[in-house]
Amino acid sequence: MSNLLSPANKVVLYMGNEAIARGALEAGVNVACGYPGTPSSEVVESLSKVTTERNLYVEWSTNEKVALEVAAAASFASLRSLCVMKQNGVNVASDFLLHLTASGTRGGLVLVTCEDPGALSSVNEGESRYFARMLEIPLLEPATFQEAKDMTKWAFELSEKIHNVVMLRSVTRLSHASGNVICGRLPAKNSKAHFDYSGSMMDPLRGPVVSTPVVPKHTIQQKKLAETANLFEKILCNYYEGPKKPELLVITSSACYLYSREAIGMLGLQKRVGILKLGSTWPLPPQLLKKHLKAAGKVLIVEEVLSFLEENVKTLYAGCAKEIGVKAFYGKNDGTIPSVGELNPDIVAAALGKIFRIKYKPVADDYAHAMQEIEKIIPLRQQTFCAGCPHRASYWNINAALKLDGRAGIVCGDIGCYTLGALTPANGFNTVRTSHSMGSGTGIASGFAKLDAFGLKNPILSVCGDSTFYHAAIPALINARHNNANLTMIVLDNSGTAMTGFQPHPGLCSGASGETLPAIDIAEIARGIGAEVAICDPFDLEKTTAQLTTFMEKADTVKVLILRQICALSPEKKGKKKYLMKVNEELCRGEECGCNRLCTRIFRCPALVWDKVKKKAVVDEVICAGCGVCYSICPQKAITKTEAPPQ
């Protein structure tokens, strides 16, 4: 049995995302959906394992906008629904979210955004908190694992109280860390869907669910938000700890609360500094804030990443400055707290030290010096594709075709493992020239391809992954075809959302809970749009390079080349080798070869190692995935391959 179904009062070690999932179960959630993205994926994954036991519908949707629309349908039918995504996903969902917050909801609908300060596994450290303020919906930010569970459960109640979406924000250090949680009771499974549309347009529970008329509904929404602010004055997740009259008041939320507590203890400032910990950060509870602002002369605001909380606290203060007196504010705007990156106790301690004029060093001088000496002998490890990764072979093919073509082709990319194609030869062979959001590679390529009238004669290519194709690249491909853009779209199909844990997508025959579903074929979609389509195995270098070269030579049409090879780390393939690879030391000429160590200097599969003593290339048999591609790139045929025995 999944520990997500543990009985009431049992103490369970949960990852933060599991605690959120448990909170949703305790709230009686009926529908959960999302699009995978680190650090959010485990919420939906956890719920997908208990669909039968809890009578749940769980879905990995095509993209975040669709996921929110699916969750909204459940809410309109008076069911409780959860929608989960990372910070980038809120941008994708924001179009529908704007309309949804205007129309309102029925059954509780909680939007969980798991964000990534410091961009530990993202291309940016974007902020979703501003959407809560802009769209006038409540924002909750748990700081502990227990709060992650309890606040998720309560968020459904709040959503039904105000008939609107409630946003719950986690961060990487909460989502992916683990801690003890006391479980609550799981409710009975007796929900019944019913969508009533018999009332007037202004009836939130019985009328058609539409975002118009705008002004009357906006007025109602603002009244509900004001009620929420009053409710936030008394909730348990907002509390103060410290002296009655602190010299400095720290206002903080989320994981920054834990950093602040630790930093205060590190500097021994417990009797001088108080912490106002907020679990509800929009709308702010005005009376609670006034009370504690009045008690202190100095205020430090600690948050990740942008100055969202700081701006809102200062705005509230501006309206009551005469009442509570002059205050000195410290935070991101004056540089006391960094305005980019992830925080930690050392950074907060340094900020406190600056305010109190306490010299603080995170590590002793001798320790720092020792670490500098150790760093000198640590081998440099660059980001690179995994051993046996089909993307390495794909970029090898693309580079070979570009060189054969000789017209300096431009390759546009987007987000996924294949983003490494934008990096140095040690990684993706310095191939990709643009990289932005999911699907943007083909959109930008479509634009480049129409600039021939202005003298841009380079061949135009785009690369995107299979999951990205369904998520955001289809509209760009349609645009290219409709406008006769001369480009070649290369779909790197590795049979799953590999970067975030191999979650299924519409191109596969399974769903979030392992159920059998119809696969939607990329090639048929592309042909239906009118593109010329070919499918190759990127490990077949000769055929793939020839096909790509042929496509680049064709003008005035859209071509789609699908490079299909399953990811080496996928559950279906991991540990299963097609070939056993070795280096024949008698044939390997090493640095004396005309290739100048092509295998270990340029191709750089992690399983190909340069033996400095022997001056030869060596295959690390433990790491090697047995794809056989290195056999094809060695000009001396010093790398050999033999069929691996059945496994």
**CATH superfamily heading of the largest domain:** Thiamin diphosphate (ThDP)-binding fold, Pyr/PP domains
Given the structure, what is the number of helices? 22
Q: Taking Cα atoms only, what radius of gyration do you get, to the nearest Å?
A: 28 Å
* First-residue to last-residue Cα separation: 30 Å
What class, by secondary structure content? alpha/beta
Q: Spans of 5+ residues with little confidence (pLDDT < 50)?
A: none
Number of strands: 24
Q: What amount of the residues lies in strands?
A: 15-25%
Total tally of structural domains: 4
Looking at how many chains there are and whether they match, the oligomeric state comes to single chain
Largest sheet properties:
7 strands, mixed
Question: What top-tier CATH class of the largest domain fits best?
Answer: Alpha Beta
In words, what does this structure look like?
By secondary structure, this protein is α/β, with parallel strands linked by helices. It folds into 4 domains: 3-232, 3-Layer(aba) Sandwich (Rossmann fold), CATH 3.40.50; 239-356, Rossmann fold, CATH 3.40.50.920; 390-564, Thiamin diphosphate (ThDP)-binding fold, Pyr/PP domains (Rossmann fold, 3-Layer(aba) Sandwich); 579-643, 2-Layer Sandwich (Alpha-Beta Plaits). The longest helix is centred in the middle third of the chain and has 19 residues, at 214-232. The mean pLDDT is 93.
